[in-house]
Amino acid sequence: MRLDFTPEQEAFRSEVRGWLDRELDGPFRHVRGMEGTSEGIDKRFAWERHLGRSGWNRLAWPEAFGGRAASLMEQVIFHEEYARSGAPGRLSHVGLELVAPTIMAYGSDGQRARFLEPTAMVDIVWAQLFSEPNAGSDLANVQTRARLEDRPGGPVWVLEGQKIWSSFAQYSQWGMALVRTEPGSSGAKGLSMLLVPLDGKGVDIRPIRQMTGGSSFNEVFLDGAETAAENVLGTPGEGWRVAMATLTFERGVSTLGQQMSFRTELDRVIRAARSNGAIADPAIAKRLARAEAELRVMRYTALRMLGDTGLSRAGLTYKLYYTSWHQRLGELAMDVLGPAGDIAEPGGDAWRLQKMYLESRSDSIWAGTSQIQRNIIAERGLGLPREARPPRQEPARQEPARQEPAKQERA
Amino acid sequence: MSFAFTEEQAMLREMAARFVEEVGGSQAVRAAAASEPGHDPAVWRQMVELGWSGIIVPESAGGLGLGQIELSILAAACGRALLPSPLIATMLAARALSIAGDEEQCARWLPPITRGEITATVALTHPEGRHLPGDVGVRLRREGQDCVLDGAAGFVLDGHVADLLLVAARDGEAIRFVAIPAATEGLAATRQNSIDIGRAVARIDLTAVRAGPEAVLPGDAFEALLLHANATLAAEQMGAAAAALDRTVDYARQRIQFGQPIGAFQAVKHALADLALLVEAAESAVWYAAAVADQRPEELPIAAATAKLMASDALSRCAADMIHYHGGIGFTWEHDAHLYFRRARAAAGLFGDTDRQLAIIADGMTTDREMLRAA
What we know:
The complex is a heterodimer of chains A (about 400) and B (about 375). Chain A is an alpha+beta fold. Chain A folds into 3 domains: about 5-90, Butyryl-Coa Dehydrogenase, subunit A, domain 1; about 125-235, Beta Barrel (Butyryl-CoA Dehydrogenase, subunit A, domain 2), CATH 2.40.110; about 250-365, Butyryl-CoA Dehydrogenase, subunit A, domain 3, CATH 1.20.140. Chain A has 11 helices and 8 strands. In chain A, β2 and β3 (about 155-165) form a beta hairpin. In chain A, α4 (about 95-105) packs antiparallel against α5 (about 110-120) and α4 (about 95-105) crosses α6 (about 240-250). Chain B is α+β, with helices and mostly antiparallel strands. Chain B folds into 3 domains: about 5-115, Butyryl-Coa Dehydrogenase, subunit A, domain 1, CATH 1.10.540.10; about 120-215, Butyryl-CoA Dehydrogenase, subunit A, domain 2, CATH 2.40.110.10; about 220-375, Butyryl-CoA Dehydrogenase, subunit A, domain 3 (Up-down Bundle). Chain B has helices at about 5-25, 25-35, 40-50, 70-80, 85-100, 105-115, 220-255, 265-295, 300-325, 335-350, 355-365, 370-375; strands at about 120-125, 140-145, 145-155, 165-170, 175-180, 185-190, 200-210, 255, 260. In chain B, the strands form 3 sheets. Chain B has a 4-stranded antiparallel sheet with strand order 2-3-7-6, with no helix packed on it. A 3-stranded mixed sheet of chain B has the order 1-4-5, with helices on one face. In chain B, a hairpin with a 2-residue loop joins β4 (about 165-170) and β5 (about 175-180). Classes of the chains: A alpha+beta (about 400), B alpha+beta (about 375). Chains A and B meet through α3, α7, α8, α9 and α11 of A and α7, β9, α8, α9 and α11 of B.
């Protein structure tokens, strides 16, 4: 157990910090601090393409695919420095962190050659098309269907159905869609993972207005949408396995970057408590201290996870821990602000805290609800038996390889 | 930077777990705790042979020269079975000597401690259980070369059997530790009737206890020792919490009601998942605090307070739920659940309760923003 960084890691940190500061003080100073789902979209995509050209957006990728094959600690350092620099929230992470690793793992050479480079350069932005109105926590209950049809240019998959909760689909050119390709199948069987262009006919993308007023999620209606027969990831019928692999990519070092934004939020709450005197209330001071302690614990847990091979029990608990922390921070923020927090004008700290309060209610729903998380912890972490479930109508579903079905769409 | 145990630390963990498994059965633990010394001297002798009594003692004084991480490993292992021994008390005394003692004092006391010839403890708590520096209940006054101690301390770990007591005493503005052998005239130690029947604590009364100048540790160790005490105690609490959870999970796997193990019901499994969260949080905080104690002492106040806070939370909830999810059997004297529940209550208050830890964190919160990055 060592707490210090090596000289090489410190050198890497200065390299990252130097580059970020140079760019964000210079040509990209207008994107600094941008966050959320609608703020400065064009400028932020320009920034993300710049990250792509400079190679910083795919540190973890193997060198064979144009990455830097960075160590875990280097990735941690990058995420920390990125958050510290005030660089904007990312819009292209579905492609870079979820779709690309899946293509690396399951794609053909042709798919890798066709998609990885433009994904890295943010010329293709991806949407994840997994969840459906009736396939949320029960993700395998996919009803969107695809069938092969002949066309003059060769066979194509034709898709019919509806996907929902797709992050940033309104800005995406391609989607990775979990669809049912074996008629009559049910559950995890008979599914395939298709790569589908979203700018063609038969695709209708409608942003969902969320309770915060913003729109990061979308409904995607597929009504005769087409993609070439070759655009299946893995083999037809193997979709569930591919989807499970994708979901495991979501856990990773980016959690360290997320913690830095939690840090920013907690600091904002502490600042508010100091400026309006709420910190003098011992009950508030204690809640702040607890939030501080728990945020530190999150960091230690994340570092423990990085040292682990495989998904440890600590790793399994992580999402539920930060979810409840974040929701409690939202409540604490509003208690610190008092009635003034209810009438905050846009732009200021109080307004940002109010937004966080509202936004945090989604945490316990997406990427596996808190109830699904507790099932995962209890069954995989503690070895408790599964609850008896009524059988599906059709053939029994397969056990997922590593994880419960869980909706994982969220940038 | 790495959060993984070294090979040696991993081996120590395994060895400690095996040892505690061998000697820490329920009957043995109960009998030892209820006995006059509050522990089994034969088990303590084995710990001495394993080198545990010198785990943090410098090699120059015959010890293993290891750090807080290793001591926390041992404390966590003992905590699992609530195995009573003078280990923590004696190592806290060794720590006080190392921090505040001069060369002569260290040379006099550390080797016999390491060899297991004597056990030791620290008396730093007000008889009513408070731990702020202003609460120290023993006063030191000078009479010529000598000093004379009057007052009392409570909650002294193994204080009724320790051969050597390091007594925190107010010396004007300062607090000094004074090394007092148990046989000294004017010193009385009485085991207290603690809710935690698994750990012996004693009240120490000092009436005109006279000591030479060589008994007074010159350094300032009171605050630092409290931090080390909490880092160590948190490891023990974490081990106990993990065991309470494991035993409850085992029971939930075996106990059949309505045709299936109760652990299959989400009403039960979700509650146990919530306990796993607390145990993992405590574990993260405990190992971090231990590493900080060895490598970055300037961060120890917040790290130790966080570890104590998390470990107290984890053990309190795990022990209470251990009773509950065992149903009626969990409420019996024969079942061990109440031993964990009793430990949870007493340990949370020892060396500063949760409110005190939150106050320490609140103090630190407002100062160093760079800490998180540096971690």
